[in-house]
Design goal:
mainly beta; 4-stranded parallel sheet; 3-stranded parallel sheet
Length: 137
Amino acid sequence: MKGGARGDFNNVHFLEGRYFPSAGAEPSAHGGAVMIANADRTRKELVPAVDPATGAVNKDAGKYRDVPVPGNITFTRCVFADNQVTNGNAGAAWVKTRPGSSGWVIFDECVFSRNQAPSGWGGAAWSGSGGGIFDAR
């Protein structure tokens, strides 16, 4: 998913995802089921004549500015089972939020079972740079 995208996955089963590199293929990968590199994208927004937060007059009124649009992804009641990477991190779900991104990835009431990353970190999941939330209700 590209930065700024929104994804909502409900009751999806991610089963037996595998990454076994063959000759000439990428030698390592992350996330046997899903790999998410989350980053904000930007959109253009017209600068208003008066700042709504402060009431001050904007010297750049009428110009366009870049406004970040976060990428937000939610997995609810999903199952990640028997996923594997042979040379990489996170047997099931790999999440990395780029520095400065305001997006998030949530795993809410998900089940992780029998996932493997024998040569890396996170048999089930790996999250780097924040932005990953795991809820184990």
